[in-house]
Amino acid sequence: MSRPRLCRKVNFNPNITYFKPQGVPMSELEIVELTTEEMEAYRLRHINDLEQKEAAKKMHTSQSTYQRILYSAYKKIAEALINGKAISIIKK
Length: 92
Fold this sequence. Notes:
alpha+beta, 13% strand, elongated
């Protein structure tokens, strides 16, 4: 049996949860799903300018877990921007 997932603190509730390339119909777009957890990690690092240790503390997680969450966000955002995909922010 796997270890139960810990509850991470997310203080970010986005009003806008969808982004898409301009001029491309929705029916032609692939969607990349970004979790609110990934958005929070990204926000803490790049909007609030927190170091990983401090951001991990705010999210009530370890620094290594925070790094994995942040890297996952980077990868998804880059994929959407480079390949012209839509980004959907989902609650998990």
